[in-house]
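Before a colleague's protein record goes any further, I have to sign it off. My question to you is simply how this chain folds and whether the tokens agree. I do not need a full report, just your reasoning and any doubts. This is what I was given:
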Amino acid sequence: MKILVIGDSCKDIFIYGDCDRLAPEAPVPVIKPRHRKENPGMASNVVENLKKLGAKVNLITNKNGISKIRYMDERYNQMVLRVDENDSCDRININDDFMFYGPYDAAIISDYNKGFLTEEDIRFFSEKLECPVFLDTKKFLGDWCNNVDFIKINSQEHRKNFERLPNYPELEDKIIVTKGKYGCLYKNKTYSTKEVPVKDVSGAGDTFIAGLVFEYIKSKDIEKAIKFAQECTTKVVQKSGVATI
């Protein structure tokens, strides 16, 4: 299978260290760094998960670098501080990137709302791509995503859109809401998930959308795809950092 991923990417950096005292100048923890781990993040993390599942993937993403740096207390895997560097990126040039080695079995628009994609860009892709289009977005939903086949948002994003959604009834049957340990909501049906010991939820949404699309291409059954995506996610949240399937 061949999948196109479009969206903002970053570098996820985890700096692990000892954190056993407070600073004398202020009531903040002091961390002594021991080692660091770097991973491709956001849209690039979606790609890494798809590749681990066996898909061929093309990625259209930003050139300038965004970094999310997390300082972690290694004993408890507890985040002490997160620093976001270069937290925006240049807008996509559709003329340069649109015809990037198609056709595709599906496309994922992984929109972290960092400036790479506007609403009109997403509308353009969803109208032009001749394959199922899945959207994972941090933007407020609207008629600009009418031509998307499925929209994945988390429970916080769903609450943010709650008052707006009655204005867009055509989106109702497209929305898949991930709710962490409380499962997943689609068409007013809750899909429960296995409760597991959680180490880190960073990047779990990327894993979910990757698993969802991979299984949907195979089965053409969105319920099977949701269940498979949940299985993938329960695996990565038991690992430290931004992990892949």
User: Anything to note?
Assistant: The chain is about 25% helix and 35% strand.
